[in-house]
User: Fold these one by one.
Assistant:
Number 1:
Amino acid sequence: MRRSHEPISWSLFGAGGMLLAFIGPGLIVSTLLLAWLVQDPQALYATLHSGLQHPLVRLATLAVIALPLYHTAHRLYHGLHDLHITGPTWLLGGVFYGGATALSALCAFWLFTL
Amino acid sequence: MRKPWQPQQPRNWWLRNPAYRRYMLREATALPLLLYTLLLLAGIVQFSRGEAAFATWLSWLQTPAGLLLQGIALAAALLHAVTWVALVPKILVIDSDRLRIDPRHVLRAHQLGALAGNLGLIVATLWLLWPTGGA
Amino acid sequence: MSDTIELAVTRYRPEQDTQPWEQRYTVPCSDDMSVLDALNYIKDALDPSLSHRWSCRMAICGSCGVMVNGEPKLSCKTFLRDYREAGVLEVRALDNLPVERDLVADISGVVEHIEAVKPWLIRHSEPPVDTAHSQTPAQMARYHAFSQCINCALCYAACPQFGRNPAFLGPAALTLAQRYNLDSRDEGSSERMPWLNAEEGVWSCTFVGYCSEVCPKDVDPASAINRGKVASDINYGVNLFRLLRGKGDA
Amino acid sequence: MQGYARAAALCVLGGANAMNQQQADIVIVGGGGAGLRAAIAAAESNPGLDILLLSKVYPMRSHTVAAEGGCAGVIQAHDSLDAHFDDTVAGGDWLCDQDVVDYFVRHATEENLRLEHWGCPWSRKPDGSINVRAFGGMQIERTWFAADKTGFHILHTLFQTSLKYPGIRRCDEYFCTDLLVEDGHCAGLLAIDMRSGEQTLIAASAVILATGGAARVYRYNTNGGIVTGDGMALAYRQGVPLRDMEFVQYHPTGLPGSGILITEAARGEGGVLTNREGYRYLQDYGLGPETPPGQPQNKQMELGPRDRLSQAFWHEEQAGRTVATERGAAVHLDLRHLGEQHIQERLPFIRDLARTYINVDAVHEPIPVRPTAHYTMGGIQTDRHTATCLPGLYAVGECASVGLHGANRLGSNSLAELSVFGRLAGEQAAERAAQGLAVDPQRLRPQAEAQAAEREALRRANGPERLAVLRDEMAGAMEAGIGIFRVPAQMTATVEKIAELKARYQQLGLKDGSHAFNTEWLQAIELGFLLDVAEAMSHAALARQESRGSHQRPEDFPARNDALFLRHSLARQQQGGATEVSWQDVVITRSAPGERHYGGKATGEAGR
């Protein structure tokens, strides 16, 4: 029996799922609140900007983007299998997990070059 | 003289049973959550491009499309949170000679954690908005 | 006793039929009649050519699994009274398995999967013949639910991933591997992990969870498999660490 | 009906001569506890052997799976092998072969421990050691248990353990129809591959029959549909005697209607039996004095032997003191005083069964129960090493009569028997196989083909008689004539009825002419087996003119008669088909026949 490398993606999926369960709904309510309540975007920008100076905050922000990316990519990748939508593994894996990785890397780049 | 009938799983297998439909709905939460995550990612991009760009992103949030996406994502996130937390005690089982935690406690801890995490985030946001916002 | 119910049974006779078809039977319906009683009534009184498996009629031998109105059920533990409202009972062979004939599914593939995972107690050394291993009730409780599997294969009929890919070891086999891995007397988990670690092992499972819903013995295979994922995950990490130190097995 | 005609035509065209052929060193018929244990023993004693385990169901479906209460073996410090010996011999009303009982009690514990080493989840005490419970007729607690699914766990442990021996291969869902005898030796068998309907000749140096009991000859029984006496009939047809067939155990607590088993462990744990008036009637039948509910005393009241308890029910029913239920007369098995926690821990399956099948929650209501046919004490006559008089043929488990149970089996002795004698049978067969006594399958071919043709003829039979009708008439006749109490006129009527049914069986007509998984065909063959077993039972019952253990003739021979009948009955099918009953002496080594003491009197006996 050949060892599967699924543990990597499953771990990321699990971390993302847990994160989404713990802060997902709260996060969405928060952006809705932003949309409704924010009256001074400049002040908000400044507050966020100063907050993001701390590397741990940047790391946490990266996690909030990257882990849900992996989580959703994992579910959608398996969802295609469930829907009998097939394709070469390298292609589908590349699109979903590669996409999540690429976007996470970009996110990291933007965050750490602020 | 055997000639077994080989059934093929139909593509729409998941429509045939309520349990499967619930499963597919749970899995489908990933789509709006992905789009929402991309929206957040866009926020970071805009943020990195400066104040004005960030304000634009904030205005995107208020467009009907932005609100719709957030509404669907909120429903998805709630469904995800409920189904996820319910499954945790079946996966995370702490039961060894040295340490045993009742699965009910594992469940309760995660329920409280999710409640605290989400409500805490909302409170924090409100607190963040208060001085910068109107009040 | 004029009370009756209709059974729509999916027939398949390999020597005559090219594909399954439906045959309807009207059977008496009383409060304590099981679907198995109805099938035996058909066999004895209406149509001896109907084939189905059964034996113990007390939900312990695991022979009589069929689909009843689309759900995998032990026919001996499913009662006509619960379908009076529906009027018609659709009975067919277990889903996801080849159909040998009528309601007889070919479970040989499932049994092969069960055999594959080394489902026996593995010890480095045998204990003396006149002593028992010690095992406290708490240690037994750790695997006890997973040892209750009767191999009825309802969980395989419930599992869309097995339906999609019959190479998937599936709920009962993986649960049995976990049953021994979690037994305080066993020392063989390293021999079973390769089966869990494989794509066809725990990693084909997407936690649909329906296997645990249909299990007539409350075994909870979904939990067993997903705990197996945690075990496999840790095993992967340990193996990676060993590889990096130049003595891995992958 | 056109389909049937077309199928029949196809069968003729297909021809009956497409016979498969296999060879093995040992072939074991039956994949229950005894068969699996024999296979493992053979593989362990000689790993080079080719052992074929053939079963008409997947092994884990075998009826061992339904045994609930437990498995005997002396383990407590204050218990002794002598005590187990005495209980077994007295329980069997001195019809046990005492050398066999001696061997059995000496090996039972060892075998239970071996099952433990193989992973059997025996219930434990808080300190992690083996727990035992009280059982009927046993003076000290020595019944090992795995909650109330002991047979299930033993069977699955053995099945799973058997998988690790490369020497053991299986033919699952192969139905053995005939034994093949060449030069006075059992040289193999003929079987139907149920999935294809093809006949298979299997040649072997040794054949072990481990096919289980035959309680399906009765209308109301605790047994699964597969328990049809196949092995008994296979041996009987080869002239091997069936021994002590008149002794059929009625289990005192089956569910009314279905006969589903409610384990004796329910009483071992402290459940009590009451009649319509709520009175614990067992004290009126020599089993008293009444013990406090929930505090069972060994060998008293509810922990008396099964034959006595079933007989007490019969008397209560005659006196009109039973409870009328919609499924017939019953008494109440009351567990309520044990409390939910104890019931859930020790008797979860019983609670589930009662809830599912009669909508009674044992925690809140008493369970209605009645005696139902449960176990055949008799079977294929073997010596104390499981060999039959036909060289090369061994028999073990419920299908065999090794001489252990006598006139009444004690609960929990039969699960231990599977291991103790299953192992012995496997080792004996391995020894024989090592001598290379295999017959060339080609030589068996002519007789195999002749027998296969007979089976084929049955598949195409188009007489007027209906399978289900014959089966039900047989079951009714056995219930009436060879039940808990046996009355001469009814017994004679049953003997005649079985003869009539055997004649009508020749006029059978089957509707299904197909090959693949043709269960009508298989059931017809099973009915043939059942009728042979019923014949042996009824003739032996008629011949035993005394009352002993489970064989009670209150009208004509109400007492035990050691002078004439301290002997095993041997029912043998003669060449012409007639049944002849002869007698064999019982082996008595150290326990002279005495009175069976239960209830208050048991205390005196327990000391010896």
Number 2:
Amino acid sequence: MTLAVLLIVLPLAGAILCFGVSERAAKTVGLIASLAVLAVATLLAFEFPAWTTGAFWPNEEGWKLFTAFGVEFRLGTDAVGVLLIVLTAVLIPCSMLVSFSAITQRQRGFYAQFLFMESAVMLAFLARDVILFYIGYEFTLVPLFLIVAIWGGHDRRPAAIKLWVYSFVGSVISLVGFIYLAAGHATDTGTPINFGVQTLVEYGQTLPASTQWWVFLAIMGGFAVKVPFVPVHSWLPLAHGEAPTAGSVVLAGIVIKIGQYGALRFAFPMAPEGALALAPFFAALALIGILGMSLVCWVQNDVKRLVAYSSIAHMGLALLAMFAFNVVGMEGGILYMVNHGLSTAGMFMCIGIMYERYHTKDMEVVGGLMQRMPIWSVFMVFFAMASLALPGLNGFVSEFLCLLGIYTADAGMKTGFPGILGPTYAFLAALALVLGALYVLRMLQKFVFGPLREPSHGHGGHDSHGPHGHGNHAAHAIHDLNFREIVAMAPLAIACLVIGIWPKPILNVIEPCAANVVAPYVKLIERDLANRPRAAADVDAITATTAPTAAKGAIQ
Amino acid sequence: MNTMTPAILAATTNLGPKFMLIVPEAVLFVGAVLCAVMGLSHVRAFRALVPWVAVVALIATFATMLKVWTPEAATAAQLPMPMLGKYIIALLCVVGVGHVLASIGSVDRAVERQVASGTGAFDPVRVIQGEFYAFILLSLCGGMLLCHATDLVWLFLAFELCSLPTYVLVAIGRGADRSMEAAIKYFFLGAMSTATLLLGFAFLYGATGTLELSAMRESFQMQAQTGGIGSVAIVGMLLAVIGICFKLAAVPMHFYAPDVYEGASSPVAAFISFVPKVQGFVTLIVLLGTVGWSANGDSSIPPVIAAVLWMIAVLTMTLGNIGALLQRSAKRMLAYSSIANSGYMLVGILAGPTIGIDATLLYLLTYGVANLATFGSLAAIERNGHEVDSIDDLAGLRVRAPMVAAALAIGALSLTGIPPLLGFWGKLDLFVASAESHQRTLLVIMALNSGVAAFYYLRLVAMPFVQEATPRTQGVSPVPSVWPRLSALIFAAGCIALPFFANQLKGEAAAAARTDLDKQATVAQSVEK
Amino acid sequence: MTGIATMMNMINTINSISIAAAPAATAATTAPMAPAMPANIQVTLALAIILFAIGLVGFLTRRNMILMFLSTELMFQAAALAFVAFGRMWMDLSGQLMVIFILTVAAAEAALALGLVVLLYRRKETLSSEAWAELKE
Amino acid sequence: MGGTEGMSTVAIIALASAFVTHATAHTPTASMEPALFTTLALALGDGAHAVVDGHAADAAHAAHAASGYADVGPLHFVKAVANTDFAWLKWMLLAPLVSVVLCGALAMFKVKSRMPAVFTVAAFGLSTAMAIALYFQFGPTLFETHAPLTVPFMDWLSLSWGPAPFQSFTANLGFYIDGISMLWMLFVTVLATLIALYASEYMESDLKAGYARFFFAVSLFVASMLILVMSDNLVGLYLGWEGVGLCSYMLIGYYATQPGATAAAKKAFIMNRIGDLGLALAIFLIWTNYGTVQYDSLFQAIATTGSEAVQGGWSKAAIPFLLLLAVCGKSAQGPLFTWLPDAMWGPTPVSALIHAATMVTAGIYLLARMAPFYTVQAIGGEWAETALLTVGWIGCFTAFIGATIACGQFDYKRVFAYSTISSLGYMVMGLGVGTAFGGVYYVFTHAWFKALLFLTAGAVMHGMAGQVDFRKLGGLLKVPGFRLTMICMLLGCLWLATAPFSAAAESKDIILLTALTSDVQQVRWMGWIGVLTAGITAYYAFRVWFRLALGPVKIEPGADQHADHGHDDHAHAADAHSTHKTDAASHGGSGFHPHAPGLRISLVLTLLAIGSVLAGLPSYLEHSQGFNWIQRFVENSTAKIRAGDGAEHALILGRDAHSTLFIIATSVVVAGFLLAWILHAKNRALGDRMRAFMLNTTGLKWIPLGSEHGWYVDQFYNAIIGVPAWLGAQLLAFTDRFVIDGVVVAAVGRFPGFVARVFQPLYTGTVQSYALTMAGGIGLIVAWVVWVWLSGGAS
């Protein structure tokens, strides 16, 4: 039972255990199980040998259960996967800690769902087989649906149903893409069908451009629902608006990341020509997401919807940077995934804690909470500044690298990674810096600073909605954060600060993985640029000797 | 004027090995008779034993099948698809046990209660439990015999043996008017479709002059090489396909399904949503085996029939799925879902012999198990004495019947194709089959359909767990007898556990799909698996 | 009436095809030598098809359940006749063999059908199938 | 409410649209570029101003005439020397950070003590000592070897994906010490220490509420300012740049309970963020063109890439303009100046430290540091000229506008705020017209006397319970305890008005001298506008002082929690029995007696006064020592290409430059003084009558109204950008919520159901209907087969 398999089985065992114990004991059992998973995850991180080489580890061939279907139980992940695993392992206990006092009914089911989700997410991040990834990716849907549908807010059912249908259709479309690729591989090479990621990646890159176009559209289209890209994003604000605090934290911190991880691990390597051809289309969608959603955030009054829209904008920038097809952009995109997971999860926790006390998310009704809850407002301002990309915090490092990546995409051949995104994308994307400040500061001004405003019916009054309302919450004074809540949020805050000030270790880890993903694109773009008339300046740059050495340099 | 064609003579001589193979069916037949007889006995204990006799008979059949059905015996009997029988018998036995358990306690409940309380004297005429289980076993026996068919007569007889008992089951399943109406509809439309099937057989006979399937295949091969299969054969095949579509509840012939499944009692509905499908698909595979596939070498059925089947598959999937969206009654919704699943399985048939048929056979298994989990859990609950029908009755089931709610949810999730469960592997196999046989449009249509399906199956998951109990659902409670709940639970557990045996199941299905042409391959493959 | 019209042209088309193509098909096959299609086989075949059509139309138009059953029986016999016709064409007895089995099965169906009809009649005192239309969308 | 946000997009849209139209053209032809960029420059620099200036149109032609202006010949920068024994320099940065941590801890645990002030003053004192030690240790070596010092501190961002030059990106936290950075380190730390001392008493009344939070923010501010000044690469500068922006946000919004303060803080942060956008874009373009952001390698790269190699096309030419946008954002110039007056919501020490002395000068530091980008050698001929001119015009335009608005204000803190904007305009103009030395010298002198002015204003406000309207005060010279404050304010006003022989005069006149003697006609115009502005400055400087100091004694105390402006809730600390909330003095002022500034405040005021006087020393001692102390700093830095102050013998109006300038300047200042004396000291009624006259004559009405309301710039931005952007966002939110989510998704969701409803009538329930539909289905299939047969003949 190697570490990787333990990482998948342990949360399952924990979940089943959660069902066994009494309602009151459920939360402690849940917490212990998730902390155990955290321990295993950190152990895996320490034992992980390929921190600097970007290679995949542990490539163990596990149980031979589904070989007839071409599905090998191959587990393996590279540095980015381990980072996301550790992020998940940290977020789940934190989200549980935050919801101890928030959730009072069906607690056994609540904590079990989180552990089910955790095991599914771990499987998704560890899978080296496309269908194994699909199993993990798809199975996160059931616990997430139940969390939003049972413990959610006022009109949680439509939100949960929309979440379910959107994600299911999205993942089925990706599955069609995978199967089309695997079947093509099986018929061409005559071998029985095989869903190994490596085989599909090698086969995918040999396909003619037109088929790669379709394959990329299918796979990326499926993940676009989860990222989410603009036209198919409307499930996210609804789901966040209705999910319980812990649900929002997990949804923003982990579930969105699987979509992006899928795009990074499967869509880009498997159909590079398709990615190149569709890059302008998806980049334009990302841009609309960044600018449009930031403006929409600016006028929201429901703070959870505001943060939800803001994560669409952030993810848009991360994906745009990935479409720049160079190491800086890809690295910025990957780091953005981790940073967004930390800062947005933190913000949702703050909002959740406030919601627990005031039972409203409307910025018009509640405000100036600095007088009432100073420590809470320190955390709130800290996470807001992290998501605002303030230098010195983690948001800045990733946003700066993303923008730099988009710029290098236009810098012609000398950087060794010529991109196809023109300068217009770069300048419009840079507006994200200012637009990002607009809505976050408006929220802070209404929520944290300014005169104290509290809901008219007094705080702690019985809340009219939701079965999980807090019963006859005695009208007691609003108290600031208690120790449990601080412990829940402290690790995220510390992580934000450390990554902001000392990003070197994480950047070194991500760089080889980013280089591997981007490697096939250099030759393709060079070929495109060579047969497309370019400005005089770039033509002689192409003849410069830098390009080939760069490509070689990047690959080893 | 030659009095007896050589083919008929040949058939009568090598009856020995064929008889050996039908021993399992014989055991089942005996079991059926026993059930019928015991059902009429005055002793209440004997009557209570009837379902258990049925179960024992099924288990015995399974055992004898394992012993009797060896590859050598199968090839000796020159069956068109030697190992198909073994797979189908195993499948029907296992799911048959589930049906029997699901219907324990639901038949003759009123009569037994009167007899137990002494208010009414026992009257053999009013008791139907015996016939009920007998007919179940007979129908299963018919389904199993289909696989032994080497000529059209046997095929037709087994076909009828399988479908006639189902008409009766629908009628006697539940005393209410609704089941009567369902029975009459089912019977008449069934009879019409069987007549069409028979006319199709007639034309096939007309085109080839023989009833022997192997002889037919050779003559079709001849016709294929010399300028294509005759138009009489094509018309015959079409009519046969249309006849079979009724059994599969495929599009032009699916209109009966919602009413009949709603009318019949839940265990019977579970039965008639699964066994006729097995019957239809086996007959279709046998017929297509003669007309197409191995017949003209490049394993493709005549384009006309392929086009018709393609249209039927797409229409069935789509109409089945979107039809289910509007339903408020759980059984009608599951009826539409069974129509849609037939559509998926037709895609397997279209994908051709090597990869398609074993995908369909495997999906039959996954559908059977998931179907019993869902229909079984409906059978296991009642609302103050009456059958639970509308979805609103399921609200908050988690509180009143946690086990049944779990079984229903797991069954629904497996039907949707949520990965770790068995349904996903069936669907994956179908997706791969259609992709490998270059049916790209079918692949996309199937994906979209399963997207739509995810929406209405979600209701079966959300109602029991997410919805709060409403005053209307106060009366909902598990059925007095424990067995329906247990059977639903067992099959729900099957949905979760069976994927761990996915390799063996796929191996069995693949073996079953091998036609007699590569005899040696069959023997080698079954050993290696 | 339109239903019947479609039925008629459908039969003619099958008729024309089978008659026209049959000889060609039979001539070509080298399997057991099928004799040329003598005129009377065509006639019996046409009769069989017409019978089938009548049965079908009867089933569609009649409301009385027993008459509906009779029309399905008629369709069965039409198929049997087709078997006999083709048997005669191929000078092969297995067609007759099939007919015998068809008769037995038809008998079984008859028993079952009448049982059901009696059951329904006892319930609603009417033989019309219109009475039984509660189960609908 | 959309004002600040509105403002945020004005520069962006102008900037983005220019670039977008330009970039998509992809292969810019030579002719198109200059025209486009001049329009951009004009739009950026002096859009509104163009109307007044009249002859901006022929700016391009005049530019070509003068050659020496932007073309300074081949550039040469001395390679930096890495010297590890200056490693102790990192403590200069870490000291304030330690104070940040300590103050933060005290704030978190709500400890009520004076320790935060002690930590902060101690930390700043340590940094000052180190700055002075650095000057004495490294100064001499710098002055003769001219080689800047680099000290590595901590690695931050460093990526490399290939061996070649353009394939790595390093931006670590290191120090790059040369002339201007040393100068900035000196006066920032000295002023910070004094002001922190001042604030320790000034903020005492907030001991319980936000004392620790205040000093947390001040320490973080100085730390960020030092990072900005000492950093050895552009990204480090960006870190400091945004850090000071954050601290100004926190300090302006210090009185968090007042909506006005938080709105002002938000406005300041967003306007700074627009500047930061310019800086970020500049950094990206610099990296894509030169492959490095480290100062040392960057300047070597600029020096080596000769002008002929300047084919970076538009991306190189855009760098100076983007840097200018950054300067406008941070130093409140050009279109982005409206946040500084609102920043007066913050406590006065904040205004003194951040919005007068240190943060706002960061823009000038950037211009001085990045001066090489404004030369023909770096970015090609036709753009360097325009870039420099734009800088000059923006400086001149802001100075003029700032001065005119200051004349109309009645709140003396806002007068000083507008005077800061005006002085910053002068500094930017200094760099624009070609004398970095003049600009930097004026920064040095201005920092001292402006801090003095603000602190005296703070002392007056502190004493008068938050009263900021000088019409409600008067004759403070005669009020006991305030005499020292008023004398210091007089000194400050004299320096502000550039009284002859004052330190300010020495520095400002260099700027005007270079401008007037330049051979570029436009620059000469800037010079004359500068002289006119100097006169206006003199007028409003003394207007404030006469109103406050002279005339009958009049003290109307502002309400403690004054709704409008009074914002330091002061109470008689000594008066034990009074609680914070209730202020003993009722509005009527009957029992109110002004609270004279304490010892620490008076000490700091006198020190600053002495400092302002001594700020003139570099030029007083110039003749004896042979060199100007500040000039030597500038010459030993990257701004040295601008250090030279033009030909000695140049002529103004035909006569010797120095003497004529002296005469003109003094006459203008005296005129301003006399005008202020007449209107505000001797005969105040005349002043009021004149204002009333102007108000009701339609012809002249716009002058008083315009200047009192800051030429309605805020309202203008709100109207053309703020409101439309807000409406656009509402529309977007509506479409997203109801159209995409409501209509489109619902339609897609309901389509299957709709199709199902079409087929629903087929299920009528009667056997016959089913049989009919089935037969129909069979008929369709057979018909289709026959049709295929007839057409395709498929067998």
